[in-house]
């Protein structure tokens, strides 16, 4: 299957309960980074900041914050990527 865009990835994570939407206004300079570091350290969910101060679009973070979540996201393409890496390492 694979994903065509980031919105599809976020929708899939949200359907699994692995996305936290943060609608409170947050500052992109220091605040988002501090929140993301704490959530990453706690092996928490992916984050979608929907109200970023001075920004007209949302910001996502911690999408690949756990190995299980990364495996889920790349579940359809992981074998192909592994084969390509193996070919590059040992082309014969």
Number of discrete helical segments: 4
- Classify the secondary structure makeup into a structural class: alpha+beta
Low-confidence stretches: none
Order of helices and strands: HEHEEHH
Global shape: elongated
Q: Look at the structure and give the mean pLDDT.
A: 92
SS strand fraction: 5-15%
**Beginning-to-end CA distance, first to last residue:** 30 Å
Q: Radius of gyration, Cα only, in angstroms?
A: 16 Å
**Biggest β-sheet strands, sense, barrel:** 3 strands, mixed
Oligomer: single chain
Structure description:
The chain is an alpha+beta fold. The protein contains four helices and three strands, in the order αβαββαα. The chain has helices at 6-15, 31-41, 67-73, 78-89, and strands spanning 19-22, 46-49, 59-61. A three-stranded mixed beta sheet has the order 1-2-3. Helix 2 (31-41) links the parallel strand 1 (19-22) and strand 2. The longest helix is centred in the C-terminal third of the chain and has 12 residues, at 78-89. The protein is elongated, with a radius of gyration of 16 Å. It starts with 5 loop residues before the first helix and ends with a helix.
